[in-house]
Amino acid sequence: MQEVQLGSHTLRSHGVSVAKTHMHDWLILMLLVLLEICLYIIHPFYRFVGKDMMTDLKYPLKSNTVPIWAVPIYAILLPIAIFLFVYYRRRDVYDLHHAILGLFFSVLVTGVLTDSIKNAVGRPRPDFFWRCFPDGKDFYDKWGDVVCHGDINVIKEGHKSFPRSFAGLGFLSLYLSGKVKVFDRKGHIAKLCIVFLPLLVASLVGISRVDDYWHHWQDVFAGGLLGLTVATFCYLQFFPPPYHEEGWGPYAYFRVLEESRSSAQAANMVDMRNGRAAQADVGNQEEEGSSHGFMGLHLADDQSALTLEELETGRR
């Protein structure tokens, strides 16, 4: 049996089998999407906000420097484009499938965690005052809590400050560190620039959220730790650690390669046994032929001996 080499697992040859193997993972992924939609729709906890607390919540209401529609582009589409480029070079459907699945799980698991915490905490954003009182006229009830008269959806978003995470670019950084073998001990420190680039982009986007007064710095810091933690766990489900000798490929590829080698060794053992059996058969046939010839000679000798005895008897 021919050994499977890197690049022999394509979408056409192994795509369907890989998808069937991870069918349950994709179903769980769809459930996470539905859960994320529900968490986005429900209202967060409306925390008590008194007049003295408004001092730190009067930052101007601005639009995002990095628009919301750009988040799926740099957090999902950009990593997938890099995954496709690697697949085009290596033709390994296991690497492509597991990278995409791991990326989706990183983003969705982090999204569910962060949105759950956001709704449970209900921390006001730095620009909450202008969300609550767009005309600048504040009003409070008898307990000192705010009575907002702004847009309902704007106020709702104003209670979702903590935390803010970036898992997609963290997963991409881990993926690239394995592909370029950044920990191969050869001293090519320039590889770190490739690994740190996605983290730099994520950091700049997080800082822009603070500069736009959509988040407190604690929100971005805690969310960054949460996103990197989830991305690391998801990455290690499919790939060895980047510092491992086999960190450049997924576990599934090496498993299939090992099974192929085992099958090839088993086939070679069967061929060797068949060859030995064939040689043994040939040897037995030769032995049988030689033994028949020896007995034939004896029979011929016996017949000739009998003929001489008969002749001598007749003479007598």
Total number of helices: 10
Strand content: under 5%
Order of helices and strands: HHHHHHHHHH
Largest sheet: none
Organism: Cannabis sativa (Hemp)
Domain Phosphatidic acid phosphatase type 2/haloperoxidase: 101-235
Keywords: Hydrolase, Membrane, Transmembrane, Transmembrane helix
GO molecular function, one term: phosphatidate phosphatase activity
Summarize the structure.
With 316 residues, the chain is mainly α. The chain contains ten helices and no strands.
Q: Can you tell me about this structure?
A:
Helix 3 runs antiparallel to helix 4, helix 4 packs antiparallel against helix 9 and helix 7 packs antiparallel against helix 8. The N terminus is likely disordered. With 316 residues, the protein is mostly helical. It is elongated. It has one domain. The chain has ten helices and no strands. 66% of the residues lie in helices and 0% in strands. The longest helix is centred in the C-terminal third of the chain and has 65 residues. InterPro entries: PAP-like (IPR043216), PAP2/HPO (IPR000326), PAP2/HPO_sf (IPR036938). Belongs to the PA-phosphatase related phosphoesterase family. It comes from Cannabis sativa (Hemp).
Feature tags:
mainly alpha; 66% helix; disordered N terminus; 316 residues; elongated; PAP2/HPO; 10 helices; membrane
SSE topology:
Layout: H1 11-21, H2 23-41, H3 71-90, H4 93-121, H5 128-132, H6 152-157, H7 168-179, H8 191-211, H9 217-238, H10 251-315
Helix pairs in contact: 2-4, 3-4, 4-7, 4-9, 7-8, 7-9
